[in-house]
Design a protein that fits this description.
With 265 residues, the chain is mostly helical. The protein is 46% helix and 3% strand. It has a domain of 100 residues. A two-stranded antiparallel sheet has the order 1-2.
Length: 265
């Protein structure tokens, strides 16, 4: 047979509508070869590589998958130990302990040997004695005599006695006080009185009142009755002053008491 000659294919017989059986259908070899090569051409067709967009989409999906797995692994690594620690802490919660209970472990107990009854008897305090220190008797304050009290006027404070310097105006006054029968207490009142009035100065002068001398005579020339030298002689001034005190207040302490109450005598 020639290459272009007919090729007979055995096909199963089929009945047509008239009930007749179809016979063998003659075809050419060229048509058969074309039919046989068509699938091979389709099978061996060259595949084109994927474009840049397809590669970027595939790489992005791979990165997203890896990131998701990494996030899940990190969460599991952090939440797992934390949850275990929290559950362990809540399970091992220690009840609060008071200060008294915490010190019970340090309590020491001592067992003493011997007779307990004898020790109790030795600690008995029912037979003790108390010593009371006696209160010292206060020393009685010396009281002035009735004569001194009456001579000192109302009984005010009496300055202490001080021995005068020899040759001074106070030494002259002390001799005159003793000559009148007055005591040292009266001399002390006289010293305090004239210290306040003139400071025992012969020429002491009060410009506001015009008083003059040791006894502050007002006016000063009143002292002329005791002597013409009343301006410069302390003895003349003291003589006049003691006479004035005796005639008006009775004693120097009486004059001193009046001066302390009123500011003048």
């Amino acid at each position: 047979m020639t290459p272009d000659g007919p090729v007979v294919h055995d096909l199963p017989a089929a009945n047509d509508d008239a009930g007749q059986t179809r016979g063998v259908v003659p075809t050419r070899r060229r048509d058969v070869a074309a039919v046989d090569r068509a699938p091979a051409r389709q099978t061996t067709a060259r595949r084109t590589p994927p474009g840049p967009a397809a590669r970027w989409s595939r790489r992005r999906s791979t990165s997203a998958t890896f990131a998701a797995f990494a996030a899940v692994a990190f969460a599991a690594a952090w939440i797992g130990p934390t949850g275990a620690a929290l559950s362990s802490a809540s399970a091992e919660e220690v009840p609060p302990i008071s200060l008294y209970a915490s010190t019970l472990g340090d309590v020491q107990s001592v067992t003493a040997e011997g007779d307990t009854a004898a020790e109790s008897a030795s600690l008995d305090r029912s037979g003790y004695t108390v010593y009371v220190t006696p209160t010292p008797t206060p020393t009685p304050t010396p009281t002035r005599s009735a004569a001194s009290a009456s001579s000192s006027g109302s009984g005010g404070w009496v300055p202490p006695f001080v021995t005068p310097d020899p040759g001074s105006a106070q030494a002259i006054a002390y001799e005159m006080v003793m000559a009148r029968g007055w005591g040292d207490d009266q001399f002390s009142c006289l010293v305090a009185l004239w210290n306040k009035e003139s400071g025992w100065r012969v020429n002491a002068y009060n410009a506001s009142s015009g008083a003059y001398g040791i006894p502050q005579s007002l006016p000063g020339n009143k002292m002329a009755s005791a002597g013409a030298d009343w301006e410069t002689n302390p003895a003349t001034q003291i003589t006049w002053g003691l006479g004035y005190i005796a005639g008006r207040y009775g004693t120097p302490c009486g004059a001193w008491d009046h001066s302390t109450r009123t500011g003048w005598y």
